[in-house]
């Protein structure tokens, strides 16, 4: 089922993207470029955007198509991942549509976008905590996690008032969701950069989901001596399937998004990817591991925060020639393809380390 979902999504995005490119050109959904950005980007003006619609649809087709083929139901946890992906993608779509409609490089202003992301993140968190599957197990708990829930970091146990613990948990989930979506969005500045980087992150969650399924606390086949190291995540194989479906969709999309790109994912795609990655981190109980799984996105976000902080503190001086950091190397004269491949390499190393840490924590138990 996992491979089937990935293959269906890949074929959908690979084969149908050219048709969407023609449609978006007809609708005049073209990209607008910042005037203060690198001059090399001005040739991309008018390039079809909102490509995220394609791989979001491909992911949905992959997940539900594979479930139909195998005559199985889609687990609640998978529906939650899809909800977060589609919800965040819709916020991104509104941003992209305003850019196209107003014919400028700015869509939603900062606070309306954050409010939209927070609304989706809050709804996801409430559903994950309170909606239970047929066994009565919630998709998520109110605990911060590394490779599984951290007992002393459970918001529900930090206060005698349940509502306060829930509010703290909602803040935590929104912090993860908004950070992940904005991190992917910041990385989406070069052809194929965010797409390829996200493929590495999602591949890591495929491996994590499969491993958690093999070591599930709910499995009758789990050895008694491994009970202390088993995992309590709900439907881990389903989560791996969702990650595989989005991964396959992005591989197909990358064929057309790599340099020179025929289409751009836009905020629709970047926020959708970020939402899915955040949801996978929360539901696989690997929230803090997201720092490594999304290593490149963290680096891009950190470069922007450092640049802004230093600029304000020094009244106009800069650390980088331009932020996010991939633009710094562009202005230093690095070819776009060189930056993309090297940044992909960084992401690959981050995810290899993440998987290593995940496995080492299991061995340590």
TrEMBL record:
One of its GO terms (biological process) is cell division. The keyword ATP-binding does not apply. Pfam families: Glycos_transf_4. GO terms for molecular function: metal ion binding; phospho-N-acetylmuramoyl-pentapeptide-transferase activity. It is a multi-pass membrane protein. Mg(2+) binds at residues 185, 267. Pathway: Cell wall biogenesis; peptidoglycan biosynthesis. InterPro entries: Glycosyl_transferase_4, PNAcMuramoyl-5peptid_Trfase, PNAcMuramoyl-5peptid_Trfase_CS. The chain crosses the membrane at residues 6-25, 46-70, 76-94, 114-131, 155-178, 190-211, 237-256, 263-283, 289-311, 339-362. Keywords: Cell cycle, Cell division, Cell membrane, Cell shape, Cell wall biogenesis/degradation, Magnesium, Membrane, Metal-binding, Peptidoglycan synthesis, Transferase, Transmembrane, Transmembrane helix. It is found in: Cell membrane; Membrane. Its cofactor is Mg(2+). GO terms for cellular component: plasma membrane. CDD domains: GT_MraY. Its EC number is 2.7.8.13. It catalyses: UDP-N-acetyl-alpha-D-muramoyl-L-alanyl-gamma-D-glutamyl-meso-2,6-diaminopimeloyl-D-alanyl-D-alanine + di-trans,octa-cis-undecaprenyl phosphate = di-trans,octa-cis-undecaprenyl diphospho-N-acetyl-alpha-D-muramoyl-L-alanyl-D-glutamyl-meso-2,6-diaminopimeloyl-D-alanyl-D-alanine + UMP. Catalyzes the initial step of the lipid cycle reactions in the biosynthesis of the cell wall peptidoglycan: transfers peptidoglycan precursor phospho-MurNAc-pentapeptide from UDP-MurNAc-pentapeptide onto the lipid carrier undecaprenyl phosphate, yielding undecaprenyl-pyrophosphoryl-MurNAc-pentapeptide, known as lipid I. Belongs to the glycosyltransferase 4 family. MraY subfamily. This is Phospho-N-acetylmuramoyl-pentapeptide-transferase. The lineage of its organism: Bacteria, Bacillati, Actinomycetota, Actinomycetes, Micrococcales.
């Amino acid at each position: 089922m996992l491979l089937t979902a990935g293959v269906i999504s890949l074929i959908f995005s690979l084969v149908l993207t050219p048709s969407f490119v023609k449609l978006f050109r007809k609708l005049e959904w073209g990209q607008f470029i910042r005037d203060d950005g690198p001059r090399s980007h001005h040739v991309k003006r008018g390039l079809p955007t909102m490509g995220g619609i394609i791989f979001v649809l491909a992911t949905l087709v992959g997940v539900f198509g594979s479930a139909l083929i195998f005559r199985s139901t889609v687990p609640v946890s998978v529906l939650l991942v899809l909800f977060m992906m589609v919800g965040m993608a819709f916020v991104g779509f509104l941003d992209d549509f305003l850019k196209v409609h107003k014919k400028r490089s700015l869509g939603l202003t900062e606070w309306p976008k954050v409010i939209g992301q927070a609304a989706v993140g809050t709804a996801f968190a409430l559903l994950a905590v309170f909606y239970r599957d047929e066994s009565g197990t919630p998709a998520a708990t109110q605990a911060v996690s590394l490779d599984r829930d951290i007992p002393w970091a459970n918001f529900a146990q930090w206060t005698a008032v349940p509502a306060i613990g829930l509010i703290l948990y909602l803040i935590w989930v929104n912090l993860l969701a908004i950070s992940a979506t904005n991190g992917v969005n910041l990385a989406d500045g070069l052809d194929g950069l965010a797409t390829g980087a996200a493929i590495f992150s999602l591949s890591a969650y495929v491996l994590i989901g499969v491993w958690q399924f093999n070591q599930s606390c709910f499995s009758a086949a789990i050895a008694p001596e491994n009970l202390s190291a088993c995992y309590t995540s709900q439907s881990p194989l389903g989560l791996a399937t969702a990650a595989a479906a989005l991964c396959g969709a992005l591989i197909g999309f990358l064929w057309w998004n790599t340099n020179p790109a025929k289409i751009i994912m836009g905020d629709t795609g970047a926020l959708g990817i970020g939402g899915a990655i955040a949801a996978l981190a929360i539901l696989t109980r690997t929230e803090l591991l997201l720092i490594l799984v999304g290593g490149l996105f963290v680096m891009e976000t950190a470069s922007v925060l450092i640049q802004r902080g230093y600029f304000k503190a020094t009244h106009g001086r800069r650390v980088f020639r331009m932020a996010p950091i991939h633009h710094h190397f562009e202005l230093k004269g690095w070819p776009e393809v060189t930056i993309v491949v090297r940044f992909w390499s960084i992401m690959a190393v981050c995810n290899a380390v993440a998987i290593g840490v995940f496995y080492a924590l299991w061995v340590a138990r």
